[in-house]
Amino acid sequence: MSRYYSLIKRLLKTYVFNRHVTPKKFMNLVLIAFQHGFIKNSRVLGYPTRLVIEPINICNLKCPLCPTGQGNKAQPRGKIRLSDFKLIINELGDYLYEIDLFNWGEPFLNPEIYSMVSYARSKNIRVKISTNFNTLKPGEIKKIVKSGLSSIIISLDGASQESLDKYRTGSNFEKVILNIRALVLEKKKQNSRYPKIIWQFLIMKHNEHEIDKAKKIAEQLGIEIEFRPVRTDLGKEIFENDKKKIEDYKEWLPSRDIYSRFDYKNKKRKVRIKTCMFLWTQSAIGWDGEVFPCCAVYDYKYSFGNMFKEGRFKNVWNNYKYKEARKMVRTRKITDSSIVCGPCMVNGFIDF
User: DSSP assignment, residue 141?
Assistant: First the structure.
């Protein structure tokens, strides 16, 4: 029950009681929420309320459960141009509450990232970035605050270099902590509440003993810390059921399940997702305009289309693949095995 209460509270905060809501956004939200919740139609009237836009799919780290860190060649490497980013915002910006400006790479490796944040913010859109916070050059801390970024998630899975080395290969613990201190100080200098700083600690078998230590460090830094269980291989998780994930990746999975959606001891999911709302309310756009049903899809052969090649996002949003995917979710029948939503549905849907 507390899980659903938290979800409702978060949805109200995200879509109703915030500074980014407008009558146009709210009417669009009501329209697509009704379609997802009641009609579950194949052709959606309205636009997504939230987007994942990938600024770059290149990373400085070699995380073993990330396809980018693994060197997976299932998608070409590159970074989005500011002009292309503006095309997306110019079409969809009036309907968007939030943009996740990250996916398969390190956002701050794209030098135009600050201009992208500023442009989205000028359209009254909340912007969030997730980063390993290792690549910043002198002067970039100031740019982060000045850009108007709403929140920054800093991936730091451990409270020591020793723990960090086991998963975030190439990350420097002291460097990240120094950058956090500098960001906290710069916010004070600019008298800014933003960005909200969140330390994200993925709990794994090798770092779960450092949870209390991490809490103390976060308190000293004056930032929020969020604990989440590590996900399994990010490029494969759609195609694997819970039992296989727990068996194949047990070397990474924590022994405790206090923060987890899985009951590792009994090898089952605590709460099973029954539908997918992404197909009606959200979308993910790659650096080169490839459109995916959600941010968990990595392989380009499962793209739903390219909005730059097809002229605009709307031409992809209600094309054959999107409509067929929604139909499959609605009927619980796989009618086209080439659409990635089929195995995701069979395996109980991805739970973010």
Answer: H
pLDDT tens per residue, range 232-254? 889 888 888 888 888 888 888 88
CA distances (Å), 334 to each of 70, 273, 346, in order? 30, 18, 9
Distance in angstroms (rounded) separating the CA atoms of residues 341 and 294: 10
Distance CA 166, CA 159 (A): 12
Give, to the nearest 10 degrees, the angle between helix 211-221 and helix 173-189: 30
List CB contacts of 198: < 8 A, sequence separation 6 or more: 151, 152, 153, 154, 223, 224, 225, 226
Predicted TM-score (pTM) of this structure? 0.89
Are 264 and 255 in contact by the 8 Å Cβ rule? The answer is: yes
Of 183, 176, 181, 234, the C-alpha closest to 201 is: 176
Measured over the CA atoms of residue 242, residue 248, residue 252 and residue 253, the dihedral's sign is positive
What would the pLDDT profile of 57-115 be if each residue is shown by its tens digit? 999 999 999 999 999 999 999 999 999 999 999 999 999 999 999 999 999 999 999 99
